[in-house]
Structures are given as structure tokens and as C-alpha cells.
Design goal:
The protein contains 18 helices and 13 strands. With 403 residues, it is α/β, with parallel strands linked by helices. The chain has two domains: 264 residues, 3-Layer(aba) Sandwich (Rossmann fold); 82 residues, formyl-coa transferase, domain 3. The strands form four sheets. The chain has a six-stranded parallel β-sheet with strand order 5-2-1-6-7-8, sandwiched between helices. The chain has a three-stranded antiparallel β-sheet with strand order 9-10-11, with helices on one face. The protein is elongated.
Length: 403
């Protein structure tokens, strides 16, 4: 295999102490890119998400979704021997990832400064809710907490309705995604300098960074953006429109699309109506224009409008359920769902990573491991532990007893 044919992160070793979502999603992306990821889990219960229903056999849907292509080892990190195993693994790792509250890894003896002493090349990733120096630093952080404090929830609803959280766990995922950016940048810099560094990402910081134009609306107007539901705060027509049997998404982000849409509606006169001639006029007269569009579109079916909108080159879409989205032709054509064989639970359907290199996506996924399934193999293959030493650790309650 030539270097170009190998996975981009082939040879990179990641020691992953993270759990739940904000860290595991990041380490799964690194695994998709070819890194060898060793997930360290508590010996008694493992990652908390292993217990979240529904289940396929013994595997939680939540754990399956975030832990493909990783090796699972379970350690008692509160024992001196378990701590030493973790340090031995960190000494051989390129990246260590954790998402505990500030101070937890230091109390365990696995903080950046400690591990750096024996591995100057180590890149240490920390994902927290609020960051080491935040006045909120000790506050428990979950996705919905970050969403609430970011302002995102305040605009995620229909006007006049109660604030709502995003349907996907974007607070957790934003922290994960930005941490991957940081870890890869640090890896690139280490290749030039030979020195690792501490990469810190806060979930709240990440969600605020994703506000995009919403933050700039506030800076420019001195007013917080208000909820507009599926509509756009500064572009009309845009959003979900009722049909005789459902709803259709329309997005007129350019003048050409607006003109195409007016013709599609059979209302070409709207193009020249001074109330709707340009972005600013349409925004000022949003309610009047929306009433005209809704009154017209509700007279015909969703299928009719999807065909007609496409005919007139207007950006459009049906609103799919999660199931319909995963079964649509686009997903099949792009190979976004794959099947992995699990030794005890059979075939698992998994969403595949989206990044392609020269047209090729990630290698076939390895099914998520059972708790501690790879412990013995990792200790033997990576650390050179013998059978007698492994048996001693199992008997001492440091690692799981081999079944």
C-alpha cells in the first residue's frame, strides 16, 4: 500500500478517556480517518451510554452510534496498577482525549502536565462545558445546558412559542467537531516542531462560534435576533410552506431564485411589486408576502409543488423523517449507511463518516466493542505484557477477568 492509499491518520494512536457524546464523537471521527483509537472505560459499568435504551442485543443504540472502529479496554484508574497501565499507554500515544470537568484528570494523575513529562510529543485534548478559566467552570455541562446559554434555544421555535432545543445534540457535537480541528492542527504543528500541546475546547464556546450571522445581527443592530421558526431572519421567502397535504421547504437566497419562485407560483407580477422588488422591501413586508405565498401553495399537493419548484429551479425539499432520510436514494448512492458484523449481536447498520479522499470514504467500520473486549490484546500487543502479568491484573480487579 502506498502512502496515498493508506488512511490519512494511519499510524496515529489515540487514547480516549472520554464518555457520553462530546468526546466519543471526536474520537470516532479520528477513527474514521484511520487512527487507532483505544477507548478507556471504567471497569464496573463502562461508558454511561452503554446503559441507554433501546438496545440491539447487549449494545445500546447510543453507544453504537458513537463508538465504531474503536478498541475498548476497561481499567480501574483509582488503583496504582490501573493508573500505571494508563500512563504506559499514554507514553505510546500521539493523542490523549478527555471530556471531564476541570480538575478530574489532575486528581487521577492523568493531566496534561503529568503525562507530558514522559511524552513530549503528546497532544492532549480536553473538551469541557465551559473551559478551565470560565466562571461556570465547575457547573455540570450537558448539551441542553450549552444550548440554553449559547442563545441558540431562544431562536429555535416559532414566534411566540416556548424556546426549544435543537433536535440534534449540537452542543455536544460542536465541542467534538472543533476539538477535531484543533487536534489535527496540533498534529500538523508537531510534525514540524516535534512538540505536542494542550488543545482545549469548550462546548459553550463552540456553539457561540456557530451562531454565524446571528451574532452579527446583534452586533450590527444592537438587537437580539428573534425566533422566526423555519423562516430566515433576513431573507423572504424562505422556510416551510403548507400544501394541501403537508409542507414543502422553499429557500430563495438570491434574486434569481425569488424571480423563479414568483413565476412558479403563477404570480409574476410580484417581481415588479414595489413591496417585494428587493431583499429589504420583502423583509419589511414579510407578513404580506408570506400570506400570498401560503394562500397559493395550500391549494395544491406536496408532490405537485416539489415537481413544479424543481421545474422552475427553485431550491426545495420535502421534510423527511429520520427513517425516510436514512433510506432515501441520496444516502444509498453516497454509501452513507454501512453494515458491520458484531461477533455476538449480528449485523449492525451504521451511519458512515462523510469525508472522502480522492472519491473514497472511510474504510469499513469495525463494530463497537463489548465492554473491555480488547483489554488483553491491547496490553499484550501494545505494551508487551505477558499472560502472567495480565492474569495478575485481572485477579487484582485492575482489568476485567477474561470470560
Amino acid at each position: 500500500m502506498t502512502p496515498k492509499e493508506a488512511a490519512p491518520l494511519a499510524g496515529v494512536k489515540v487514547l480516549d478517556f472520554s464518555r457520553i457524546l462530546s468526546g466519543p464523537y471526536a474520537s470516532m471521527v479520528l477513527a474514521d480517518l484511520g487512527a487507532e483509537v483505544i477507548k478507556v472505560e471504567p471497569i464496573e459499568r463502562g461508558d454511561e451510554t452503554r446503559n441507554f435504551p433501546p438496545f440491539q442485543g447487549k449494545l445500546s443504540h447510543y453507544y453504537i452510534a458513537l463508538n465504531r472502529s474503536k478498541k475498548s479496554i476497561s481499567l480501574n484508574l483509582k488503583s496504582p496498577e490501573g493508573l500505571q497501565v494508563a500512563k504506559d499507554l499514554a507514553r505510546q500515544s500521539d493523542i490523549v482525549l478527555e471530556n471531564f470537568r476541570p480538575g478530574v484528570m489532575e486528581r487521577l494523575g492523568l493531566d496534561y502536565e503529568t503525562l507530558l513529562q514522559e511524552n513530549r510529543r503528546l497532544i492532549y485534548g480536553s473538551i469541557t462545558g465551559f473551559g478551565q478559566d470560565s466562571p461556570l467552570g465547575d457547573k455540570p455541562a450537558f448539551d441542553i445546558v450549552a444550548q440554553a446559554l449559547s442563545g441558540v434555544m431562544s431562536v429555535n421555535c416559532e414566534p411566540g412559542m416556548a424556546p426549544n432545543k435543537l433536535g440534534i445534540p449540537m452542543g455536544d457535537m460542536a465541542g467534538s467537531i472543533f476539538s477535531v480541528f484543533g487536534l489535527l492542527a496540533a498534529l500538523h504543528q508537531r510534525n514540524a516542531t516535534g512538540e505536542g500541546q494542550h488543545v482545549e475546547v469548550a462546548m459553550l464556546d463552540s456553539l457561540i462560534a456557530l451562531q454565524g450571522y446571528l451574532s452579527q445581527i446583534y452586533f450590527v443592530s444592537k438587537k437580539s435576533p428573534q425566533p422566526v421558526g423555519t423562516e430566515h431572519p433576513s431573507i423572504v421567502p424562505y422556510g416551510s410552506y403548507p400544501t394541501s397535504d403537508g409542507h414543502v421547504i422553499v429557500a430563495c437566497l438570491t434574486e434569481q431564485f425569488w424571480q423563479n419562485f414568483a413565476r412558479c407560483l403563477g404570480c409574476e407580477d410580484l417581481i415588479h411589486d414595489p413591496r417585494f422588488a428587493a431583499y429589504e422591501q420583502r423583509l419589511q413586508n414579510r407578513d404580506a408576502l408570506q400570506d400570498i405565498v401560503r394562500d397559493r401553495m395550500i391549494k395544491d399537493s406536496t408532490a405537485y409543488w416539489l415537481d413544479r419548484l424543481s421545474e422552475f429551479d427553485v431550491p426545495n425539499a420535502p421534510i423527511l423523517s429520520i427513517g425516510d432520510a436514512l433510506e432515501q436514494p441520496h444516502v444509498r448512492a453516497r454509501g452513507l449507511v454501512e453494515t458491520a458484523e458484531h461477533p455476538s449481536e449480528g449485523k449492525l447498520r451504521l451511519v458512515r463518516g462523510p469525508i472522502r479522499f480522492d472519491g473514497k470514504g472511510p474504510s469499513a467500520a469495525r463494530a463497537p466493542s463489548l465492554l473491555g473486549e480488547d483489554t488483553g490484546g491491547v496490553l499484550k500487543d501494545l505494551l508487551g505484557y505477558g499472560d502472567e502479568e495480565i492474569d495478575h491484573l485481572a485477579a487484582s480487579g485492575v482489568i476485567p477477568i477474561k470470560e
